[in-house]
Prior knowledge:
The chain is an alpha+beta fold. It is built from 2 helices and 6 strands; from the N terminus they run βαββαβββ. The strands form 2 sheets. The chain has a 4-stranded antiparallel β-sheet, covered by helices on one side. A two-stranded antiparallel ribbon has the order 4-5. The chain is elongated.
Amino acid sequence: MEVLTPRLYVGNLSYDASESDIFDHFAKVAGVKNVEVVRDKGSNSKGFGFVEMQTLEGAQESAKKLHDTDFMGRLLIVNGAKSVGERDGGRDGGPRRDRRDDRPPREDRPERSSEFDYDSGPRNPSYD
């Protein structure tokens, strides 16, 4: 992936990697401005984060040198971070949507005479 901003996505991080560990590792290549490890509500690492380098050139060099290299026992994934508009909608790669949008508007739905006005099919003889 092409690196177009100083912000890098860093994936496959060890769950034990701290911001300072990552900062020190990337600082060996170029100047680091900020490191953020993404965490769950319990403050546990989700195994990925973002590193903002001081320059675009530093980010490009870091991605080139550190992608697919060992860091704390795991092979790093280092790519240019996507902006909000470039990200896909979910884990399956498709856009997220509200399933309720598939229903017709309320005024277009047929009315029911009662809450229980439906045919549930033939009764099961074992219940008689």
